[in-house]
Amino acid sequence: MMNEDCVMILSGGLDSTVLLYHLVDEGRFPLALTFDYGQKHGREIAMARLSAKELGIPHVVLTVPLDTIFSSSSLLHGGEDIPEGDYSIENQKSTVVPNRNMILLSYAVGVAEDRGLKRVYYGAHRNDRAVYPDCRPEFIEALGTAARSGTYNQVELLAPFMTWSKTDIVMRGHALGVPFEHTWSCYKGHDAPCGRCGTCRERKGAFRNAGLNDPGERQWKR
Amino acid sequence: MMNEDCVMILSGGLDSTVLLYHLVDEGRFPLALTFDYGQKHGREIAMARLSAKELGIPHVVLTVPLDTIFSSSSLLHGGEDIPEGDYSIENQKSTVVPNRNMILLSYAVGVAEDRGLKRVYYGAHRNDRAVYPDCRPEFIEALGTAARSGTYNQVELLAPFMTWSKTDIVMRGHALGVPFEHTWSCYKGHDAPCGRCGTCRERKGAFRNAGLNDPGERQWKR
User: Pick from B66, B97, B143: which is nearest to A146 by CB?
Assistant: First the structure.
């Protein structure tokens, strides 16, 4: 039986699912970590399970109920409604979960350290920067230094898509044959993507720019 | 009613309790955060409650069950026995909880961001460095950069005792009138401190070097 050689964060969204396929294509055998952190779009967790299963990748779901700690995010259960409109800073700001990425990445680094693994991957990309300060290169670099110096294993934090656009990710996923219908982007907690929130619009734009059809789109056209 | 002006991590141990008194002496009104993370010495949590109450400081206990995630630490429920002997790297290494400080500090930064506060304090000191990589200055500095760049509030991470020895902390606590009997150091989960584990020995040494009696020592002499 193969042993995992790195940890990766798999939300079940488009970016991290393409990252999973990308890592496997590069010959890696990651342990996929998914966080059930109280997000309204918990539906992404089922998608993560599906993708890990499809690729035969070990998968752990960690429950980290941030909705019981933080009151200020529309992304979490108990928060205000998810805004509709562009994927812009004004529109998306209410969806920011305070320091979410540092919290989830610090768990992932801990899991790597605990299992003697030296690398943690995650799917932050260029378009996220404007809205989410914890997707910026200076954050990723500083947290990487902290992870390396704060662990015996000198765990590395890696964001291979950091300089990529969402369109680049869609094109890479297409080349890898990612079943995009098994990824979930909509921030609302409904049965089908709303097509109107910032993440639905961002996804639409990325497929349009890539000149591809989104097999997930059928759901919101109904 | 006063509003808290910063967040601080209060474990209920000696260092963070002196830090609490130190911050209050400097005119700060912190929100004290204690983590119930599955440590065998959960007794420190009751001490943290006591100290916060004595000073009239708002206090929140967050449950973050790291013992259900990590298998490799003797500090956690389910781990092997706490080692006895000096506070040295060989002796204490089994007590390291993988990436613990980054996980707990990232929650604290999130709480600060959620409440619009700009500072997070914690009680890492010079003696911890050899054993715990996540108490080293380069870790603290890098995580501080990550916290600042990863939050809208540009939250600062501060470790005022970073260059102090444990003896310095004991002397400062003595000058501030800290009731040391309301602090808990022993890593074992017993009713009284064992007097033999690394943290008990480190504490004894610090009081001895400071030329002071430890009112907590009466308990282990019985």
Answer: B143
| pLDDT per residue as tens digits for the range A30-85 | 999 999 998 888 899 999 999 999 999 999 999 998 888 887 788 888 888 888 88
Cβ neighbours of B137 in A, within 8 Å: none
For chain A, give every domain's residue range: 6-221
Q: Which residue of A has its CA nearest to B150?
A: A134
Residue A222 has pLDDT above 50, yes or no: no
Considering only CB atoms, A138 lies closest to which of B71, B138, B149, namely B149
Residues 6+ apart with CB under 8 A from B6: B23, B28, B29, B30, B31, B112, B117, B118, B119, B120, B121
CATH topology assigned to domain A6-221: Rossmann fold (3.40.50)
> In B81-165, which ranges are continuous DSSP H helix?
89-92, 100-115, 137-149
pLDDT per residue as tens digits for the range B145-157: 999 999 999 999 9
CB A103 within 8 A of CB B103: yes
- Asked if A103 reaches chain B (Cβ–Cβ under 8 Å), the answer is yes
Half-sphere exposure of B218 (CA within 13 A, CB side): 6
Establish if B78 touches chain A: CB-CB under 8 angstroms. Answer: no
B139 → closest Cβ in A96, A133, A146 = A146
**Nearest-neighbour CA in chain A from B190: distance (Å):** 26
Cβ atoms of B63 and B34 within 8 Å: the answer is no
Average pLDDT, chain A: 91
ipTM over 0.95: no
pLDDT band at B1 (very low <50, low <70, confident <90, very high): low
> If contacts are CB pairs under 8 Å, which of residues 38-67 in chain B contact chain A?
62, 64, 66
Query: Quick one: tokens of A155?
Result: 């765990």
C-alpha separations of A158 from A125, A137, A201, A218, B99 in Å? 12, 11, 27, 34, 17
